[in-house]
Amino acid sequence: MELLKVENLDVYYGNIHALKDMSLTVNEGEIVSLIGANGAGKSTLMQAIMHQISAKSGTVLLNGKNVLTQKTYMIVKEGMTLVPEGRHVFPRTSVQDNLLLGAYYRKDRAGIREDLERIYEMFPRLKERRRQLAGTLSGGEQQMLATARALMSRPKMLLLDEPSMGLAPIIVDQIFDTIVRINKEGTTILLVEQNANQALRIANRGYVLETGEKTLEDDADKLLANEQVKAAYLGA
Q1: Smallest Cα–Cα separation from 21: which of 209, 234, 226, 171?
Q2: Residue 33 needs a FRET pair 20 to 30 A away by CA distance; which of 43, 55, 193, 218 works?
């Protein structure tokens, strides 16, 4: 079943045509990876899906409902949340308060407490630092916090934009293990990632973007074996 469907999306920055007739689908339960070089339009696509930037044309369907004209906070209420590139935690706020801000629209206090415990079980480092200011965390801990904060909204669909950027290899492995766990527990994931090898290894399907256009789509294992993809993105 299609959970997210993007159709014929066009985005401009002034005269620059940043996304050109972009279409993709993400089925319920999948991990779908977007790969491409810097400037390919991956982050622009994520921001347009969440209506953080405006598209000139196209549709974004979440569970069959067009959310493209909705404000971002309403899209979160509809069940889709973005973990942005660069993490963007609230640095002068405690770890726990950052998490509670992720549940800003929810009224079910018992459910929020339950989800906090689940988050602390999934990310024990955050539990250890729950009273600490988020700005004092390491890069890896801030990425965990940004992801956990998004999960506090109970998303059906989680968008992850460059979760491994700037992190040490051992932390990157932990982040990818967490993404797989989140997916196995029932959250559908659209992943933007420059580490194309790892992104495709955990994905069901993938799309390749170049200069604002979709140039290739296939099952993830087939993209991993594709000579063109190997040469351009996998260091082969």
Answers
A1: 209
A2: 55
The one-character DSSP state at 133 is B
> Which pLDDT tens digit goes with each residue over 61-103?
999 999 998 999 999 999 999 999 888 999 999 999 999 999 9
The closest alpha carbon to 191, from 19, 18, 6, 45, belongs to 45
Token pair for 198: 């790892």
Closest CA to 89 of 47, 41, 133, 134: 134
Q: Rounded to an integer, what distance in angstroms lies between the CA atom of residue 229 and that of residue 226?
A: 5
Sheet with strand 213-219: strands edge to edge:
80-83, 157-161, 188-192, 31-35, 205-210, 213-219
What amino acid occupies position 79? G
Cβ neighbourhood burial of 119 (10 Å; 0-12, 13-18, 19+): buried
Three-state SS string over 138-153 comes to: CHHHHHHHHHHHHHCC
Residue whose C-alpha is closest to residue 164's, from 153, 152, 178, 154: 178
**0.90 exceeded by pTM:** yes
Residue found under tokens 């921001």: 47
> pLDDT (tens digit, 9 = 90+) per residue, 178-225?
999 999 999 999 999 988 999 999 999 999 999 999 999 999 999 999
Give the separation between CA 216 and CA 9, rounded to whole angstroms.
16
Q: What is the DSSP string of 43-64?
A: HHHHHHHTTSS--SEEEEEETT
Helix then strand then coil, % of the chain, to nearest 5: 40, 30, 35
